[in-house]
Amino acid sequence: MTTPARSILHVDMDAFYASVEQRDNPELRGKPLVVGGGTNRGVVAAASYEARKFGIRSAMPIVEAIRRCDHLLRVKPRMSHYKQASQILFTIFRDFTPLVEGLSLDEAFLDVTSSVKLFGSPENIAASIKTRVRQETGLTASVGVAENKLVAKIASDLDKPDGLTVLMPNAYREKLDPLPVRVIPGIGRETLKRLARIGVSSVRDLRVAEDRDLEPIFGRFTQKTRDRAAGIDDRPVVPSREEKSISTEETYDQDLSRPADMERELLRLTERTAARLRKASLCAGTVQVKIRRADFTTYTRQRSIKPPASGTNQLYTITKDLLAAWLASNPGARVRLLGVGCGKLAPVEQGDLFANEHSQNHSIIDETVDEIREKFGSLSLGRAKTLNR
Fold first, then answer.
1. Candidate list 107, 147, 263, 271, residue with the active-site label
2. Residue 131: how many CB atoms within 10 A of its CB?
3. Where in the sequence is the domain holding 215, given as residue range(s)?
4. CATH of the domain at 8
5. Quick count: other Cβ atoms within 10 Å of Cβ 288?
6. pLDDT tens digits, 95-131
7. Would the pTM of this model clear 0.70, i.e. be above it?
8. Catalytic residue at 107?
9. Mode of pairing for the β-strands spanning 33-36 and 44-47
């Protein structure tokens, strides 16, 4: 029995963070712009299309970006604005189908198979979404339309910005075969080098390569990788994506050398991470500290929490212990980045009304601080320990 063809859209906003900034500030329009990199030790979070002409990309060190474009403009991220725009986007998506799988604030898969009777062909639905996105947010989106997630994602990138590409099986050979092999998910930099050594540089090369050449590289995933190169993908659109981890990190203008300074910054990061947990009504089963030395060597230290918790003091007690243990084995280390992450997340359960504060997943003080910051801003209230002296 043949499975009916699906209709999948991949919607990807164009240079989302940078586009929001250019929308809100006309002086930035038409100019090379990056979001992030507020210091010369930071990295690019997003780059406008004008900046991309200079080869600037996200995750690039800001120093390299400036080297490529000496008149580059920089703005600090405004996550609240991006989240607000994202909420509008996902409301639009769900007006067409409940099967929306969010990949990030500005990217999603939509299964519109059952929506065509109401809204017309998948291409018409894609066009309608693009129109509404422009009208309601002032931004542009690129959309790929295909019978599966893999091809829809590839298609959305073929005509950026503001594109709409339909890619059906009868055009796979023509459209997919010439593309560089890096468009196939799971093929990273090192794998690309190994493929280049056996003469595989395009999707077609991968599709027709011999098993004896591919198996040393992909092992038991050889057939799945070849299927991807042929445009075969049976993954469903999964509308409920549980958050697997919550983390916060920061790169510092000057390396941290004093343990007291590291503890102060660690407390700030723990506060932010714990607040995000509580806002999402989640508790953490593990907490992790990320440490990057001045020489870019990166370390992680992790500990389980039983029972799971979201209280700032509880998490900070653990993160401080993890940092202290690391410093004991790395005396005199200079640190350029610190991060705090929480994993094994679970929904908050109603606690025992008669339990003491230390057995609760967070305290009354945490709740009060969260409420004040929600109302008056994150800078309205802070712990004395986090102040620079």
1. 107
2. 12
3. 173-229
4. 3.30.70.270
5. 20
6. 999 999 998 899 999 999 999 999 999 999 999 999 9
7. no
8. yes
9. antiparallel
